[in-house]
Amino acid sequence: MRFPTISAIAIASVFLFDTVLSATPAEWRGRSIYQVFTDRFAPTDSTTKPSCPSGYGGYCGGTWQGIISKLDYIQGMGFTAIWISPVVEQVADPSRGYHGYSAQDLYSVNTNFGSADDLKALAAALKSRGMYPGLLESCADISTYLMVDVVANHMASDDAAESIDYTIINPFNDKKYFHDICWVTDYNNQTNVELCWLGNDQYPLPDLNTTRTDVRSMFSSWVEYLVSTYSIDGLRVDTVKHVEGPFWSIFNSASGVYNVGEVADGNVPYVCPYQNYMDGVLAYPTYYQATEFFSDTSATSLNFVNEVKAMNSQCKDTTLLGSFSENHDQPRFAYYTSDLVLARNILVFTMLQDGIPIVYQGQEQHFSGAGDPYDREALWTSNYDTSAPLYELTKQMNAIRSLAIAKSSDYLTWHTQIVYSDAHNVAFRKGTSSYMILMVVNNLGEQAENYSVTMPSVGFPAGLTVVDVLSCNNVTVDANGGLAAAFVGGLPMVYYPYFLLPGTGWCGY
Ligand SMILES: *[C@@H]1O[C@H](CO)[C@@H](O)[C@H](O)[C@H]1NC(C)=O
Ligand SMILES: *[C@@H]1O[C@H](CO)[C@@H](O)[C@H](O)[C@H]1NC(C)=O
Ligand SMILES: *[C@@H]1O[C@H](CO)[C@@H](O)[C@H](O)[C@H]1NC(C)=O
Ligand SMILES: *[C@@H]1O[C@H](CO)[C@@H](O)[C@H](O)[C@H]1NC(C)=O
Questions:
Q1: Domains of the chain
Q2: Is the pTM of this model over 0.85?
Q3: Going by CA atoms, what residue is nearest to atom 4 of ligand 2?
Q4: Counting Cβ atoms within 10 Å, is residue 184 exposed (0-12), middle (13-18) or buried (19+)?
């Protein structure tokens, strides 16, 4: 197989990104995000490999300086943004602090990850060095976006629920800011989900009364401070469904940057309305259906196809959603199946469906951890192998997406259409006719036979020569706009017009 490479000339036009301080949703749309779980990404001294047993619940030693030292690894895949773990000071208990979702002081940083200056140095390093798809060696004027994970639903305490010392919680240093104690027990009862506490009596996450005017304005002040102090370009927002929607409008607007929220639920009519309160949400419903489809060769495509269509019709703007297939809360894809061909298919789908693609550290290394905490493997165990097959595929998908964005002004805002599906194959069109990408994925896996599927009318103009940029096979679109896709060994296909390829380096053109 020839691995396509991308030339400097072809890529130069991709990088007309604005480099203003606060990045808007429109500026985020063309980005792609690498999710860094800070404690498990890289230690400050990259010659060491701290011990970090599977499922370990404590600090393993990843730092912000460690991230700086490994930016080449991320840059090599073509990402244009990173999302890092929450940065604020945590409770003392390391088993609750290493992930960052147990804050005690919003105005101090988690010194296990470094100093405030280290975090500023990370922001500066991202801004001063361009990250770009493909293999271009230098491109100084592109900044890489920094997205930080934030929590506004709750704070945390080392004390038992009934005996919390509120005075050490900053800035919410009084019981009055919090809801009375009750536990989230019933996810079908939205009042219970919003007013009650996560955690338990021994490990409580005191739940803020976010309807209070003072709590809202304290959060607005804090998020403005955080974004400006650390030059943050976007926020990943935790536990969104545990707070009433109107709070998020205020928070999102105070932050002045793109917000993407975690509404961890598979129900489209439940998840989509949160996009009325914030710029984007993580595409959890699609995630669940994609995982079921791609991880099981006997599954049929119906639920997956219907979910993509439902998201498209019910979410305010799917092009601002976060598209993902792994994160630090869910079992890895390779936990369900070790089949690398299936992993390729779901990765291609994740990178090219509507929305801002997000790849979680370790996905590119085909890590296979089960659910939290086993999905938080130390990345250094991989030796940051840049020849890993999914590392290469991620690089290719960032590159073809960036090429499509550069060649067509409405590529990003064009809503994905499913133009063909049968039991095991699904074809997606994104973009106007002569400039679109046709993505064809399947769930047949490594054992798949070779076969051909003729898809009537996929969207390309009749007679156009298109190239599957992954296999470099040429196909001519027939007189009816149809295309005969030759499946080889279950691999995904990404068709792009031939006339847009000369000079790019793809497939030797
Ligand atoms: C929903 O939860 C609230 C808060 O826990 C509780 O007061 C209420 O009784 C619950 N409603 C139902 C129908 O269970
Ligand atoms: C939250 O604060 C509001 C405004 O002060 C108050 O009216 C309400 O009772 C509080 N809610 C709860 C559940 O404590
Ligand atoms: C499928 O096609 C590929 C490429 O033409 C070929 O290398 C492979 O042997 C074929 N596999 C089978 C099972 O026929
Ligand atoms: C693909 O099509 C183009 C345009 O017709 C042609 O120049 C090129 O040689 C073809 N490549 C292959 C591998 O068939």
A1: 25-409 (3.20.20.80), 418-508 (2.60.40.1180)
A2: yes
A3: 212
A4: middle
